[in-house]
């Protein structure tokens, strides 16, 4: 490994990342299926792919995300499911799910809380899918939903 040293004496982070990506690229091109599967599992288990997706979408976000861990029911045309969001904003949320949802698909979300007697419903559209879940954008945000999000 050719070390690129900064003024402080540390190896350049950029150089280390480029070398690691080069090695991964070689394994993807020339490695066995088992090696490729292992690389993918490591990337998914360490949530690197989700992190990269979050950063990519973060550049387009207009509202800050807040952690959110209450269960959410959501309905597609064919079924009603319950899963857990990781985070939420007034614009949308990341829903941790293994359900086969597609970009452009509309879902109806139902939020329940111990603080509220009446559930809050919202319509959302799937805007991206990735390992471990989907990103949804709220079609319309009710005052109740906005108040709940602000209270987090």
Describe this structure in words.
The chain has two domains: 13-46, no CATH class; 66-150, Thrombin, subunit H, CATH 2.40.10.220. Helices cover 33% and strands 28% of the residues. It has 152 residues and is of the alpha+beta class. A hairpin with a 4-residue loop joins strand 2 and strand 3. The N and C termini lie far apart (47 Å). It has a six-stranded antiparallel barrel. The chain has four helices and seven strands, in the order H-H-H-E-E-E-E-E-E-E-H.
Q: How many domain units?
A: 2
CATH topology assignment of the largest domain? Thrombin, subunit H
Beta-strand percentage?
25-35%
Low-confidence stretches: none
Q: Which oligomerization state do the chains in this entry correspond to?
A: single chain
- According to CATH, what is the class of the largest domain? Mainly Beta
Look at the helices and sheets and give the structural class.
alpha+beta
The biggest sheet amounts to: 6 strands, antiparallel, barrel
Whole-number mean pLDDT: 78
Alpha plus pi helix count: 4
What's the β-strand tally? 7
Q: Indicate the CATH architecture of the largest domain.
A: Beta Barrel
Q: What would you report as the Rg, rounded to the nearest angstrom?
A: 20 Å
CATH superfamily caption of the largest domain: predicted glycosyltransferase like domains
Shape: elongated
From N to C, what is the helix and strand string? HHHEEEEEEEH
Helicity range: 25-40%
First and last CA, distance: 47 Å
Strand order in the sheet with the most strands: 2-3-4-7-6-5
